[in-house]
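Standup notes, structure subgroup. Blocker cleared on the H2B input:
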Amino acid sequence: MPRLTDSERSELLPALDGWAMVEGRDAITKRFVFDDFNAAFGWMARVALAAEAMNHHPEWSNSYNRVDVTLSTHDAKGLTRRDVELAQRMDQMAAGLVRR
Ligand SMILES: C[C@H](O)[C@H](O)[C@H]1CNC2=NC(N)=NC(=O)C2=N1
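Run returned:
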């Protein structure tokens, strides 16, 4: 899987909801804030199953109601379409659960 081209980046990345480039690394990041630990960890469990099915795995950490996610494709040493797809899946699965 090749890294995203410049034109793919300018098309795909701004269309993502709330994701930002990581400083000094070819990766994207987002903080998800839920009502409580149960909502956060339930979402993580569902995302984990989806990520495993995609064979594409997030870097993430959880503290109470907060989940900090970083996505990058390790095999490509940078962003690929898989990261965009997983970001979209995560956003869909968080719909109605995250604080705004
Ligand atoms: C062998 C296995 O398919 C690879 O290591 C997969 C697994 N999950 C992965 N997840 C992520 N984020 N990047 C990868 O390059 C990657 N590669």
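Discussed briefly. The two ends are 34 Å apart (CA to CA).
Next: hand off to the docking folks.
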